[in-house]
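Thread: "does anyone have the structure for this chain?"

Original post by V.I.:
We have the sequence but no experimental structure in hand. Need at least a predicted one for the grant figures.
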Amino acid sequence: MRPSLRKLWMTISIKRKIGIFAAMVILIMALSASFNVWITNVSLGSFGGILNDNSRCNDFQEALDQEIRAFEHYVRNADQESRDTYRVACVRTERCLWSLPSEYRRIGKERSARTWNIRNAYEGYKVYRDDVAEGNKTGSEFVDELYYVYKMQKEQKSIRKKQQCFLIFRILLWPFPSHL
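Reply from O.Q.:
Generated one for you, tokens below.
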């Protein structure tokens, strides 16, 4: 301590020194509590974002499964009710597809590439699906395209399962986002 500061300290009474010490302890505890609250908010905010992204991915998976079931039902029973159900399922799937997280800076290279892959695969699949659903083909050409659509649906499921595994992996590594 500097000589003048030391002299000042020696002139202060013990009661006042205890008061200064108590104030410092309270200040340190308040700063520590504030820091802990801030860390908790940052952590929960990040985790909440991951859960929100996973929810969107799950919604898309469910929507695509529903669309596939509605498509199969519509192909087998080409009535108005099954057509309406199929159309609603297609609209829901597309809405869920475009709500998937895709911001490159936020989700990273790997997830952005996977989302881009899913969107492009769906757009290609949609062309064949609509062609078959509209009945533009007949006979063996219809059957060939129908089985091609079924094959594409199976590939979409495979891509989605890989995406789902990646999201689970991301949750497991959540505290260490730099590893993704």
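V.I.: this helps a lot. Residues 14-76 form the longest helix (63 residues).
O.Q.: and The helical segments are 3-11, 14-76, 80-98, 104-133, 139-172.
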